Amino acid sequence: MSRFFRPALLVTAVLALLGFGITPSSAATSITVATAIGRQDSSTASVTGYVVGQPTATSTVVRSNFPNDYALALADSATQTSTSSMLYVQIPTAFRAAYGLQSNPGLLGKQITVTGTLAAYFTHPGLKNATAFTGGGGSTDPGDPGDPGDYYAAAAGKAGAQLKAALHTIISQQTKLTYDQVWDALKVTDQDPNNSSNVIEIYSGRSIPKSSQGGGVDDWNREHVWAKSHGDFGTATGPGTDVHHLRPEDVSVNSARGNLDFDNGGTAVAQCTGCTADADSFAPRPAVRGDVARMIFYMAVRYEGGDGFANLELNNSVGNGTAPYIGKLSVLKAWAAGDPPDAFEKNRNEVIYAQFQHNRNPFIDHPEWINSIWP
């Protein structure tokens, strides 16, 4: 066949002249919700379905009184009620004004198309990191009026006390958990990346079965990194249940830490390689010292005494007892600088934001703000 005669090109040209559009085989095409549920392989896809509610837990989707604009559920039928036939869609900040159900309850029952990554959300078949939403009368332009913008927009250009005040306002917008709900949250936020049946203990670093929660020897329980006696907030909903500073830990190691402040030095702690303690202070293993510091900085900004709880602050002392203070500030700053946020810590922050409390630890996202607030 002559290299100058290509039937496929001729057909394409003729059809184009007749007004028929040709879609290249490489163009993205929409898939159904059922297909998306079966293809949870972290690939990118456009999914078309009907908005059937907002997921609030693995097997719970609400159809009214929407708590926020962070997620929606899609199904192949507008009347679908079974969560097993739904795809849970994470709504990024840029699209919440147009596609969040709290702001747009009229979207319920409308057909839309969302492009993003096919990956679990709320430990359920989902679509995350969306780059486009179309249909339903909404808009996909992140610059549209009403766009909430960057999470930290209100803190832009601020420093010192002004920055602290702005961050407090931002991160105070959160969904509060009960102390019982913390158990379930920690099984997701602290899941071992190499074993989905386990969680990682914060101080010891041990990987332990999620099912081993409890108060027995070698079980794991809920450690308050900001010791709950420092401010006497206990386990009441608020600082006592804030997952940004609650972590899984071995019962014995948790007891050894007790309500000690943080400082260098001391003697080795049993069952916690790299940890040390003395009469008035505790130091976790080096790999998480920065994590601990950033949790403490978060608590000092989040809880300022205006919501019925103590004003939590850092100082440069140890032995703070039941006062609403934790030290040692100079040591915690050094720990944060020496151990910057790693992938596990960043992922944990994202999971808390996306699935549970819907607020972030700003010092994981912007470690440089530590020295701005505490020079």
From TrEMBL:
Residues 31-133 form the Endonuclease YhcR N-terminal domain. Residues 1-27 form the signal peptide. InterPro entries: Endonuclease-I, His-Me_finger_sf, YhcR_N. Pfam families: DUF6359, Endonuclease_1. The keyword Transcription does not apply. Keywords: Hydrolase, Nuclease, Signal. Transmembrane segments: none annotated. PANTHER family: ENDONUCLEASE-1 (PTHR33607). This is Endonuclease YhcR N-terminal domain-containing protein. It comes from Kribbella hippodromi.
